Amino acid sequence: MHPLLVRKYLRAASLNWDDKILDVGHGSGIVLDVASRMGFIDLTGIEYSDMAYKLSQQNIGKRANLIHGSAMDLDLSPYNVIFFFNPFRGKLAKQFFEKVAASSVRVILTVNHDPEIEPILLPHYKLVYTYQYFLYRNFNCKIWVRELIQGPPSFEK
Questions:
Q1: Is domain 3-146 in CATH 3.30.565.10, yes or no?
Q2: Residue 122 has pLDDT above 70, yes or no
């Protein structure tokens, strides 16, 4: 993905500089690289592929915490933002986003969005941003923000 698009998406998400960002399936590390250069300080990537993980170590160095393993096994509690550039689809994506919906993740950026995850996200997240790249129909970004569940009004004096 082009770094200018990554920058555009991160800006559109209205994140805080100290948000704990997880890039799922970080590949060569382009998202983490751009986020680091923008000034984000708490970055983690998880990558299953041996080759991509080694490449990201060379590209990112110590500017992000890099994890070699499966996102399906990762504890999501430390993170409040997930960048998901479609490292897997279908059944695995559904399982992963069921886990996300049960977590405290506040913002999700999905790129090359799998529409099968929408029924999982909609009860918990509000779609606040959609971008469709003009040349490629299947290249898009959606940003989801956790809905604040408000209880009954307080009548305390």
A1: no
A2: yes
